[in-house]
Design a protein that fits this description.
heterodimer, A: 117 residues, mainly beta, 6-stranded mixed beta sheet, 4-stranded antiparallel beta sheet, B: 114 residues
């Protein structure tokens, strides 16, 4: 079974600074998808960014980018120019491709990020 | 508004009781997933339905059951409730059985068992 590990339970960053959240995963699959979800105090789960394993180029979405290291099974999230609204719980998640059967998103335990003014 | 509607938003009930949580998926989505998030924990997968049929099962207790109706809305039934069942229950939907585009989540139902 796939597992997702987030080794940093809590992190903090000064406003306007850059922070990197770590995620590692374990799988024997060659093709898969990786995601970062954000859960602010409202508890809503919001998709931040996704990465397809067969694409070598790292995904970016505005201030959010990933460092995908397939061989190392590492998928870190970098938040640039941190804003107070980035304060949230961040979850890393893994999904096998559809042709591997119906498998759900597997989540890590999350990293609580606090952005400090 | 994500397009996934969950009702009720909050539910307080006593131990031993039974409750039903409802989810309407985003328009066009055929898959519905249920997740449980206990206090300050990650999301634990419970069960998935695709176009009315059960497709995948996670760590769902025997006291819990779910179904997806012809109009694609889904209900999660929790019975013989215990204090430990207190959690945030999320419903999510996707177009297919998981094509790599992630899920769209509802805002959750917070269940408190007293």
């Amino acid at each position: 079974a796939q597992t997702v590990t987030q080794s940093q339970p809590e992190m903090s960053v000064q406003e306007a600074e850059t922070v990197t959240l770590s995620c590692t995963y374990d799988t024997s699959e060659n093709n898969y998808y990786l995601f970062w979800y954000k859960q602010p105090p409202s508890r809503q789960m919001i998709l931040v960014i996704r990465q397809e394993a067969y694409k070598q180029q790292n995904a970016t979405e505005n201030r959010f980018s990933v460092n995908f290291q397939k061989a190392a099974k590492s998928f870190s999230l970098k938040i640039s120019d941190s804003q107070l609204g980035d304060t949230a719980m961040y979850f890393c998640a893994f999904m096998k491709p559809r042709n591997s059967g119906n498998t759900p998103l597997v989540f890590g335990k999350g990293t609580r990020l606090s952005v400090i003014a | 508004d994500s397009g996934v509607t969950q009702t009720p938003k909050h539910l307080i009930t006593a131990t031993g009781q039974r409750v039903t949580l409802r989810c309407s998926p985003r328009s066009g989505d055929l898959s519905v997933y249920w997740y449980q998030q206990s206090l300050d924990q990650g999301l634990q997968f419970l069960i998935q339905y695709y176009n009315g049929e059960e497709r995948a099962k996670g760590n769902i207790l025997e006291r819990f059951s779910a179904q997806q109706f012809p109009d694609l809305h889904s209900e999660l039934n929790l019975s013989s409730l215990e204090l430990g069942d207190s959690a945030l229950y999320f419903c999510a939907s996707s177009v297919g059985g998981g094509g790599g585009y992630g899920y769209t989540f509802g805002s959750g139902t917070r269940l408190t068992v007293v």
